[in-house]
Amino acid sequence: xxxxxxxxxxxxxxxxxxxxxxxxxxxxxxxxxxxxxxxxxxxxxxxxxxxxxxxxxxxxxxxxxxxxxxx
Length: 71
Prior knowledge:
96% of the residues lie in helices and 0% in strands. By secondary structure, it is an all-alpha fold.
């Protein structure tokens, strides 16, 4: 009875952590772009890069989560 409950807690917490790290990652990119290029250019680059990087990051975190569950 305890094992599925623990698994659900684990999967929930790992999803929250990955979402939080994506937010931090996005903020760092915006921060660096803002100082290096200025406001208008940084917004354009943010729109382009964040889509690709977050998709890649999300796929990576999901695959790691599945690996952890099946090991």
